Amino acid sequence: MDFDNTFLDSIGIYEDTIKRLMRDAKEYGFSSVKEFSDFYEAARKEAKVELKDSPSNRLRLIYFKKMSLSKHGTLDPKWILRLEKNYFKFFQEGIQVRKKKFEKEYKEIFALLKTIAEKQKLLFCTNENLRTQLIKFGLLFPKTFPYAILSSEEVGKEKPSEEFFAMAYRLVSGEKAVAMIGDSLKDDVQGALRYGIPAIRVQSVFSKTKPFIEEKTTVFSVDGNEREFSYREASDLRTALKLFL
């Protein structure tokens, strides 16, 4: 199962976290919120290009280092680490806010996962660094809960790479992978289908619309040939998990 934007609205939390840093732009030596935003976006885009397909392209610490160089013309370790410290402070507060807001929904999710875990292993497959993911899981999950995590940082490659899914197979100790659940058509759905794993795409973490399951198809290249694959799409995570009861 994927985690970000499948189990947790990570995009929303990341965006809110950066906005909170931007509000304090002058404390970090920027003239305005816009100037902070411009430096941050330039650093982020540069890292994405330089570290394409590498898990490190998601490290905010790298973004902040690049911001220091472009803003000050030199490295300022204390400035960089201060930004990172505040980033993770706001980030964790954002997770706690969403956990409280969706307390009822998460209670239902964990009840479903607990039932599923009695028969099948739960492996969360994520394109993120391990430290960030451990923070998220530590804040959201009960202390005693049967699950495992595989981060792209540990593999050295991101989904939908062959290396990532090969490692995932090893972690489930040779058991047949029942399904991959995720929000990304490319990384989760096509990535899983390419290696013979059934896939379910979720449209949102918690949907307010009427629950639904739809049969879908996707076409992508395998060994140079265009092939069509079937997968299912669910309104949200709870609807997808109920398929395994």
TrEMBL record:
GO terms for biological process: small molecule metabolic process. Signal peptide: none annotated. SUPFAM superfamilies: HAD-like. Its cofactor is Mg(2+). It comes from the Bacteria. GO terms for molecular function: metal ion binding; phosphatase activity. Keywords: Hydrolase, Magnesium, Metal-binding. Pfam families: HAD_2. NCBIfam families: HAD-SF-IA-v1 (TIGR01549). This is HAD family hydrolase.
